[in-house]
Design brief:
Distance between the termini: 72 Å
Largest sheet: 3 strands, antiparallel
Oligomer: single chain
CATH superfamily of the largest domain: Intergrase catalytic core
Strand order of the largest sheet: 1-2-3
CATH architecture of the largest domain: Orthogonal Bundle
Number of strands: 3
Strand content: 5-15%
Order of helices and strands: HHEEEHHHHHH
CATH topology of the largest domain: hpI Integrase, Chain A
Number of domains: 2
Helix content: 40-55%
Shape: elongated
Structural class: mainly alpha
């Protein structure tokens, strides 16, 4: 079991992978910032200082509803050692989970890169990725999006169709000029 005694880490990782939120944004999330009616998170403590709204997918919604059932505090991820305050930093637990999973050279922040790449794989446009990740520019978001083999295969397949259509147009134009 990957999380084991670190079970509190699982929903944190789920949010990171499914929202692209920064660690601090996740850990400081309060229940009032979760709008289950409109299925969105209202992130107020952001790096830019500007609040943003992130839609919740079904996995995030179910995870948060499950947490809500056992929650008594104002923070979604409240510290057991320091009630009334958010979990400070799950770095040690995260490192242990990575070690158990035999994953090397991976930081919590890499979950944001994974989310950015996932958004691109799902064919989200650059502006949407920028807004979800909370970046000031598309150039910054580009750092978080990495090409995947599947994405490259789709692109080359699309190029094949484009080239085929383009080739047919060239042949047609050539025939018209000759004829």
């Amino acid at each position: 079991m990957l999380f084991g005694r670190r079970a509190y880490l699982r929903p944190i990782v789920i949010l990171a992978l499914n929202t692209g939120m920064r660690r601090g944004e996740i850990l400081n999330l309060e229940w009032w910032q979760i709008d289950f009616r409109s299925n969105r998170l209202i992130v107020t403590k952001t790096k830019s200082g500007k609040p943003r709204h992130i839609p919740m997918n079904q996995i995030v919604r179910e995870t948060l509803l499950e947490l809500k059932e056992s929650s008594r505090g104002k923070y979604v991820f409240e510290s057991q050692k320091n009630p009334g305050h958010p979990i400070h930093d799950p770095k040690k637990a995260f490192k242990s989970a990575l070690k158990d999973a035999r994953i090397e050279n991976f930081r919590f922040h890499d979950l944001r890169h994974t989310a950015g790449t996932g958004l691109a794989e799902a064919r989200a446009d650059a502006f949407t990725i920028k807004d979800i990740l909370g970046h000031a520019s598309i150039q910054t978001s580009a750092i978080y999006v990495h090409a995947t083999d599947e994405g490259k295969r789709r692109a080359v397949s699309a190029l094949e169709r484009y080239a085929e259509n383009f080739g047919q147009k060239l042949v047609k134009n050539e025939k018209e000029q000759v004829g």
